[in-house]
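Morning F.,

Quick status update on the modeling queue. The single chain you submitted on Monday has been processed. Sequence for confirmation:
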Amino acid sequence: MSGLDGVEHKTLKVNGINMHVAEIPASGSGRDQIILFIHGFPELWYTWRHQMTALSSLGYRTIAPDLRGYGDTDAPEKVEEYTYLNVVGDLVALIDAVAGGDEAVFLVGHDWGALIAWQLCMYRPEKVKALVNMSVALSPRNQDRVPMPTFRRLFGDDYYICRFQSSQILFFLSTEQTFKRPENAASATKQWLTQEDLEYYVSKYEKKGFTGAINYYRNIDRNWELTAPSTGAKIGVPVKFIVGDQDLTYNSPGIKEYIHGGGFKRDVQLLDETVVLNGVGHFLHEENPDVINQHIHSFFQKFI
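Structure tokens below.
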């Protein structure tokens, strides 16, 4: 079940794991401009269904993987196999597999996918023509501030990221409780998820669970340690950043000041535009897909 016509599913061997990849070939012009979509938590490739359909009809080859630990992609057992370096390595190998070793792709990220996209652009900018990143702004590494103690100090031990650090966490008691309780389904369906969408997510998380996805959070301090050489590094690819004004990430302490006060532009040196969408929350590409599709297309057209 994909919920979409025209989606091709394949499994590629990348960076030592089997990665599930969904793809819609370009239609019309025959151009082979690739857009690679990187999902966040607790999403799958499927979260990009609206963008893949719309942008493939405009001549792009649209590709969205399940990241390691998610969906139909392998989920390594060791927590330490979910660092930025592991996941960026997966994406570099995926780009080489779908685009060829000397080619670059257009990149779109959201949530954890945005965090990973920032890292990919920092370490391997030659792989990315341009980036549309959503929801999570760049967080420059602070060599004096270890992330998890900072989260605990700011938000307390009950903050979800802090709770995720425990291997005993029962955040999602079951996919049945998470996705299929009537009040959850009804609430979501009124907004931007259909019952078919919910059933797709349930079908995947019932098989794999959430451990792989939560392991990304359990590597936050390890990522801070591993990325010490990048302290002070800048993003050198063209970027458009989009966020909803109702998104909790946008309303976190210090974020608006960083985004609009010059720090963001200093660190993302080819920042073309920051777009704040009114009345939109965290899952902006699903809540308002037509607007997001237009933003992606208009930005990437500058580089074709």
